[in-house]
Amino acid sequence: MSAPKKVVLAYSGGLDTSIILKWLQTEYGCEVVTFTADLGQGEELEPAREKAVMLGIRPENIYIEDLREEFVRDFVFPMFRANALYEGQYLLGTSIARPLISKRLVEIAQETGADAVAHGATGKGNDQVRFELAAYALNPDIKVIAPWREWDLTSRTRLIDFAEKNQIPIAKDKRGEAPFSVDANLLHTSSEGKVLEDPAEAAPDYVYQRTTAPEDAPDAAEFIEIGFERGDAVSIDGETLSPASILTRLNELGGKHGIGRLDFVENRFVGMKSRGIYETPGGTVLLEAHRGMEQITLDSGAGHLKDSLMPRYAELIYNGFWFSPEREMLQAAIDHSQQHVTGTVRLKLYKGAATCVGRRSDHSLYSEAHVTFEEDAGAYDQKDAAGFIQLNALRLKLLAARERRLKR
Amino acid sequence: MSAPKKVVLAYSGGLDTSIILKWLQTEYGCEVVTFTADLGQGEELEPAREKAVMLGIRPENIYIEDLREEFVRDFVFPMFRANALYEGQYLLGTSIARPLISKRLVEIAQETGADAVAHGATGKGNDQVRFELAAYALNPDIKVIAPWREWDLTSRTRLIDFAEKNQIPIAKDKRGEAPFSVDANLLHTSSEGKVLEDPAEAAPDYVYQRTTAPEDAPDAAEFIEIGFERGDAVSIDGETLSPASILTRLNELGGKHGIGRLDFVENRFVGMKSRGIYETPGGTVLLEAHRGMEQITLDSGAGHLKDSLMPRYAELIYNGFWFSPEREMLQAAIDHSQQHVTGTVRLKLYKGAATCVGRRSDHSLYSEAHVTFEEDAGAYDQKDAAGFIQLNALRLKLLAARERRLKR
Amino acid sequence: MSAPKKVVLAYSGGLDTSIILKWLQTEYGCEVVTFTADLGQGEELEPAREKAVMLGIRPENIYIEDLREEFVRDFVFPMFRANALYEGQYLLGTSIARPLISKRLVEIAQETGADAVAHGATGKGNDQVRFELAAYALNPDIKVIAPWREWDLTSRTRLIDFAEKNQIPIAKDKRGEAPFSVDANLLHTSSEGKVLEDPAEAAPDYVYQRTTAPEDAPDAAEFIEIGFERGDAVSIDGETLSPASILTRLNELGGKHGIGRLDFVENRFVGMKSRGIYETPGGTVLLEAHRGMEQITLDSGAGHLKDSLMPRYAELIYNGFWFSPEREMLQAAIDHSQQHVTGTVRLKLYKGAATCVGRRSDHSLYSEAHVTFEEDAGAYDQKDAAGFIQLNALRLKLLAARERRLKR
Amino acid sequence: MSAPKKVVLAYSGGLDTSIILKWLQTEYGCEVVTFTADLGQGEELEPAREKAVMLGIRPENIYIEDLREEFVRDFVFPMFRANALYEGQYLLGTSIARPLISKRLVEIAQETGADAVAHGATGKGNDQVRFELAAYALNPDIKVIAPWREWDLTSRTRLIDFAEKNQIPIAKDKRGEAPFSVDANLLHTSSEGKVLEDPAEAAPDYVYQRTTAPEDAPDAAEFIEIGFERGDAVSIDGETLSPASILTRLNELGGKHGIGRLDFVENRFVGMKSRGIYETPGGTVLLEAHRGMEQITLDSGAGHLKDSLMPRYAELIYNGFWFSPEREMLQAAIDHSQQHVTGTVRLKLYKGAATCVGRRSDHSLYSEAHVTFEEDAGAYDQKDAAGFIQLNALRLKLLAARERRLKR
């Protein structure tokens, strides 16, 4: 790879990406464009601008954007249409944010004439893969710089040294090593590393940042109604809201009731197991709601197909293949199934759990006429079941007859 | 079908199966053998014997058996190795009990020279399918009688009339219609019908029979440890227990903490949607524990394959194909994956939720050496990730290059 | 089911459907509308009109339509985008024609105010299922009459008697029983039954009706080029042709060279195995061509996903679920993959085989620069493979290390 | 990676691996053990011994082994139980040989105290991945040396120079570049590269080495019978033969009749497409035979599950994951399905095609009683089909009713 001339850096304004910024300038002597996005991580963005200026970035090279609506509308919601869970339990909060960041990095590179992008993900994790696969899928000629895989700043001491030598301000609490590593966006907060590295040890309480402990959550349940249209949440308690507003509100509600905590050991795409603590309050509520909505509006053939495709769909997102033909193929199938996933779901929120307790829809396929224990006025002829069973049994009978025949 | 001469009836001792018993005697004039099994439904079995005697069944034709250990060991546990959930949420508590009952019906028919078996499932539900597919798979020549699909006792009044005419004792609370229908065994209690038929209406509190309401559960969390060997639970808090004893104990613990309630609308195999309330306290705890155990002991390749096979496996059990070559094939694959699912999981039980908070195992694949944020002493070379990403990206780059080429 | 008043009958003009026509008139006393479609079965349609008139059908109740273009464009081609093969070998020639016939039956019922449709498929086969599932999926209130499941004309003698009593003309060669049963359309001809019922016995030569025996095919190979656009064949040897014209031409070519014969034992949806002889000359050529086209234009991620979905897609069509949400979901995924399946394939036709010998496309993903054994000018860095392998191997190493550890 | 001390080299005796041998000695100064296996590639092995001696390998460090029986019995046959085809067409002839070679390399390393293994696969292909994943799966601490990824002998000229400088004898025809690259074993011969690199150009005749051109094959068909036991071929025309003998004989028969040629563009695991010419005469015959055997002995539920698992199974083998938990899980499922795949298949071999024309088995599930067009003596009640269809149609009717309701 020839040396880059101009690099767009995914810049948080924090110590680590500030070090990367400076390192790019000194190591490659290249012009740096910073990109700071609000994906709902809950931090002010303006300090990032000030810091970028202070580190010598020209104003026109500082990009700060609020991507929350795009994030929820074009990434989170499509994923939730699939009821996606990685390895049965993880709601993919980190995974789903990466492709959007890469998309903007590549677009800004195009706009600013940059030939490279850079990110602050380490060489052990999944995020490097997600950032880079997305970038390459959108621009096959882009260069991607991953300083953590390249540089020799491999200990906290060296990083601090580099920062001091380069006049990068260091917040007091950043001198020492953080007790764990955090990633956050509108969908979730994840924590991993250090104090969490022994999967036999319970996570300390202070790790949880976004959800009340169930023990401290209100003693009374709260009931809410979520409205859906074509598979996406569109309202809460009758109030129509934008995608990001819905997720924000569900985060407040879920967080208050201690919903969405997950202590999880997962398999990284790069081959090792890692342990993370995930907090996905709004997403956990949303999944329960979406499932409840599908229960009455989704056909069983469609639903079972969706269920069988989901693990692969989730794996693709986890592994960083959002921008791939096969993810898009699966999305096309999933989206097709959502045309009638429209209606309202009633949920109970209480001490760590969101529970669907009612669903109603003009698109419902639930037929009380068919299922009733009462007289059904001819909706269903029970004698049909005899033929249904006989033909389903036919091959089993032939198998059993073979067993008998061969035993004789 | 020629008329049966001797029928083995799945007999609970209750009003409905007593009516069936008498109806078989009068309608077909055939000898009846009763089979009453303890699958953990929580009812005394001896009254069934007395009632059978009273209805004229000869003592040698009365079979009463405790199948709890066989049920958990050979049916429930193999199913839990798969983390089986039907339609993403249902633990299959009713489905998994049916094949065992059919197996014994067919075996008793063989022992007693009966040419038919009979069950009390209606023509609208899944259970008729499960009973009959299992029976035919085990004996292709067996006759199956499903009175609910045949007779004209299609209202409560007619049933009561028939009972009175035939001197079948009727408990006072059975004269009117039950407000909902119940099935129970060691794994779960299900309730459906009548007051539950509107999926928009929350289930009344009195429907729940086996689990404390989360609101009434203890205010303090309880922690337990479950030991696993090759995918099956073998101990609780260090005490080795039999399969049925483990599930019994987990039911107590889960029930006490309000764990395992599910309000669910599902797709029946016979084509309609139905709404059920399921209580699976021990099973819900067990699923969380098994998943926690797999997190550190199961390889990702094996785990992802299992995840992708699970929906089909669950559907097979739900639809009644336990005794089918394809269920056995999937079981062979799943069982192969469980060789190292051995160790101990620590769980928190609190107000409706069982949460894994720790796992340890001599068979662990979790490698702190690889995952650590600290120096890893060469366990993992971060530079390898660059090549890994490049080759994974290659096809995506070629796709992106095509897009560009064609746009020009 | 209340008695039908007006029935649309799928009418071939042959003896059997003429008997059905008369039986409907006499048994149900209902008005009959005949529908005769040209799906490329190679028979004149006008005799069907004359015969219908002769059997008392009013002219406005006689529908005769050429559906060949719709058949290929909207049914055959979408299916071939999937490379669909049932049980690994069968090109689904009968299965794919049924939903179109049902669609027109239901539409004509709507146009003519008929409340029922009728078909001539027997109660043992798949076609009854396909006809009826499609009909119900398009009109939930339609009645479907399947005379073969209802009447008592269960032997050839009775049928002939009924025909004679009702002045239905009987061609001489129809008095006796046919040595086997045939179904034909533009995609294939199938033969089954009677002389073919022993799967150990080779099919007699006279069964084959549409393809030259390979032994009698030309001794010189013939080469053709098929052009594709977005997954569908659009031209042969540079000449743009309509869908039906392409399939017709490929049938001539394939038939001449003895291509597309299949001697097959399959599993029917209704539970038994049956043996059929299929001749699908054009379809066999088309499948080979489409695969060749995909080889250079389809991404591996998309292709592998397609491959994994195909068996289920084929099963759905075979079982009669063309008009189902899950078939449409799969179609949406498959169609999405075909955007770039555009280009030209060169095929060799010789003595029973169609073989792709060349493919070219502006949409090709094949990169000689990457794959070459020669210098590749930096297109591919072989050292990347080391990292790729290391990370793919990581979990396998951890597994092997566990084995060692536990053995010690 | 620290320098290896003793290396086991997969040694063919040819120029390239002789250069590698010398390079290992000079570059790493390590002791070399050579391993030459007969997998049916059709070359004498003793010259490899002489050459190894000549290059200074000590006699006790020269391993020459006939692995043909193990290859077919433990690798080829298990794979054929799955009817494995990569990307719908490729019989995996190269892929399946690699894990066995790696297995022996690792075992010999263990026996000789070597700490490394080496192979002659390039950095662009799949074989490096297959060799190395297998090696690491069997010994997590083994070092693997892949000289083609490391050295600077990147042109033919440099290789020849190195050979001359190191007194490695060079056959005259090896001085120039081969017009294409060949791999062969008992299952297949593959050719790729150079003259084959343009996928639009037909492969020249001289590329085919193992199969007669169909045009030159006998003008009369030949019929053979293959006997199976539990999914594996055990006899030809009644003569019981060992696995390798069977494949050898089928290769002769298939080759003579021009069977098993494939001109193919495939997707490599490392990300690019490549074009190969494969000749798999015996394997192609075997696949057709195995499918024919399964047609009458395999249950549809088992068969459809197998079909759906096959693409993933084939991909695992292609990608080098033979020794992985998920391949073993799939194998367990597949093997379970083969218990009754026992009987005899009759095949026609003619001008490029093997065609099943008859199958018979004591384990047959084909029931003429059920399928017959004649009177079936009550084996099957056609009326059952009505109920079967009604219940399969129920959800489709509910869907159609929804459409209507919403349109109003």
Task: Give an account of the 3D structure.
The structure is a homotetramer of 408-residue chains. Chain A is built from 13 helices and 14 strands. With 408 residues, chain A is of the alpha/beta class. Chain A folds into 2 domains: 172 residues, 3-Layer(aba) Sandwich (Rossmann fold); 138 residues, Argininosuccinate synthetase, chain A, domain 2, CATH 3.90.1260. In chain A, α4 crosses α5. Chain A is elongated, with a radius of gyration of 25 Å. The termini of chain A are far apart. At the A-C interface, α10, α11 and α13 of A face α10, α11 and α13 of C.
In short:
4 copies of one chain form a homotetramer. The first copy, chain A, has 408 residues and is α/β, with parallel strands linked by helices.
CATH class category of the largest domain in chain A: Alpha Beta
**Number of helical runs of chain A?**
13
* Morphology of chain A: elongated
Helices and strands of chain A, in N-to-C order? EHEHEHHEHEHHEEEEEHEEHHHEEHH
Largest sheet report of chain A: 5 strands, parallel
Mean pLDDT of chain A: 96
Query: Biggest interface in this structure?
Result: A-B, 105 and 105 residues
Pathway (chains A, B, C, D): Amino-acid biosynthesis; L-arginine biosynthesis; L-arginine from L-ornithine and carbamoyl phosphate: step 2/3
Pfam families (chains A, B, C, D): Arginosuc_syn_C, Arginosuc_synth
Enzyme class (chains A, B, C, D): ligase
Binding site for ATP (chains A, B, C, D): 10-18, 37, 120
